[in-house]
């Protein structure tokens, strides 16, 4: 049973790759704008979720008064911003409005070209299904965002730190999934050819380090959501000590014990720093492992990019603490966290494809139209270097 062959024209391939990179850039911007919205206290300025009508801002004085009156009923206004006038309200309104507008715009930028490329058969069926799933996840992310905002409209003048973390992690997940598709559409075929010249024994140790760094980075991002939600950086603006201690007291005062890992400001700050140190050590291990092995140039550059991204992230984290969490530094720290995750995934992808050293497989790879789409597998069998090609124009590691 044969499936449709991808087009052999260069223009469709470039168009799809460019579109995916545009979506990736917009998602990165969304993560940064979300950080600024949180840091400026703007997230609770719009107290209603109106996916369609809310696309338009207030257009006259009476509409501004109506929106401001709704905000005055919120706990944030009553308990924190009761001194705020309409002009001051507008300054926080616009950040939250732009954050929501950017989300809507990304949905359109994803949906319309996806329909077009699918109808034109410029995207492999498997990739189209994945992208539809990502689009649906974006809709779920909008709902999570509203549930987060809603948690700050009841009694407390702030959102639930658990829901904020879920919102951040879901946003990072969507960014990572789209980035993977962009990287795959751009470089899968050339990277497969480069890795065909490297033995599985040389690749396996670096792959394991890459997977370890990616896992630690993802956990650290999750921890960062808790730090942001609990304002832990404001509580301990010192480095390297936390309130004068390497291991601060008061980390396990809540009952039950497990609750401390999510709700205890001191422990959340401590574990975030500990995870950051772990990422740094894992990146060092990755770099040392890569230096000793004959990796192709794309993989070597991926390692260097990862080292640079993590170095910058640690620098931004320390700067954010010592300067008492200024908006620019904290927003840059959140945005660069996405770039660290991107660097991790780029390295994983650069090491993911194995092509056997056989003339038949080489001829099959050269004769394929469109990019190779790897289905990543880091299990024991992937080290054997065998690869199978499906009729849909994708390849999966076995």
Write a structural description.
The protein is an all-alpha fold and 398 residues long. The protein has helices spanning 10-39, 61-72, 75-79, 86-119, 125-151, 161-195, 200-230, 232-235, 260-263, 265-291, 297-322, 327-350, 359-367, and strands at residues 374-375, 387-389, 395-397. The protein has a 3-stranded mixed sheet, with no helix packed on it. A hairpin with a 5-residue loop joins strand 2 (387-389) and strand 3 (395-397). The two termini are 21 Å apart. 40% of the residues are buried.
List the SSEs and their pairings.
Elements: H1 10-39, H2 61-72, H3 75-79, H4 86-119, H5 125-151, H6 161-195, H7 200-230, H8 232-235, H9 260-263, H10 265-291, H11 297-322, H12 327-350, H13 359-367, E1 374-375, E2 387-389, E3 395-397
Parallel strand pairs: 1-3
Antiparallel strand pairs: 2-3
Labels describing this entry:
mainly alpha; 398 residues; disordered C terminus
